């Protein structure tokens, strides 16, 4: 019934290369627009591609998170170092301030010691001067008393002022008379100079 032999078209003019049909079992790379392509193969490839893309995104996110973590660690380390350096600078500053305060305290103590020494020396000089003045006054008093015939500053001598009356004289009375004499002796040259100026 189906006899192929009755047709003569296949017998004569046949070109083996041109008339050969080849069947490719694997679908082409882009089989989405092929109408005879297997939809399951394309879907599986899409799923594998999506899985690979998701895996790459996950790795990228992990790498990004790791990078951010490393940056945070580095930043924390830098902040820790900065804080340490700040603390060290603060300690150095406090030490310098303490040294400066100690130096100022020593300077004040030295100045106070010098002032105290100068005051002590001044007081000693004042005491020595007062003592020398006192000794000089004592010497002058002793000379005056011996010259006036007294042995003590509180000694009392009797003196006759007239035939019937008598009185007492003290070193003070003699000193007043001597001062009057001394003042009179000092006044004479001045009066003579004044008279010469008038002429």
From TrEMBL:
Biased composition, class Basic and acidic residues, residue ranges: 53-92, 102-111, 118-141, 185-199
Positions of region (Disordered): 53-199
Name recorded for this polypeptide: Uncharacterized protein
The species this protein was found in: Alexandrium monilatum
